[in-house]
């Protein structure tokens, strides 16, 4: 098929898509797949950049790390339970 070798399942999918008139040839099917992959990768990169920017902008004052929360909980439990009778 147009010099592009596909595994059986994708090849069948491509053949059905071409038969339905959605694509001209296998290269069009593969091109469409790459365009979707590029869009997904771009969206993932934008999301990661957004998360990293939000983390950088975040105000750490008033927030505790997970380790700090765990230590605080251990201290509180120790104070409230006291020695066993």
State the main characteristics:
single chain, 85 residues, mainly alpha, 71% helix, elongated
Written account of the structure:
By secondary structure, the chain is mostly helical. The chain has one domain. It is about 70% helix and about 0% strand. The chain is built from three helices and no strands. The longest helix is centred in the middle third of the chain and has 32 residues.
Number of domains: 1
Overall residue-averaged pLDDT value: 88
Percent of residues in β-strands: under 5%
Quaternary state reads: single chain
Number of helices: 3
pLDDT < 50 stretches: none
Roughly how many Å apart are the termini? 81 Å
Number of strands: 0
Helix/strand structural class = mainly alpha
H/E order of the elements?
A: HHH
Shape: elongated
Radius of gyration: 28 Å
Helix content: over 70%
Could you give a short account of the major beta sheet?
A: none
Give a short synopsis of this structure:
Helices cover about 70% and strands about 0% of the residues.
Helices, strands, pairings?
Blueprint: H1 8-19, H2 26-57, H3 66-81
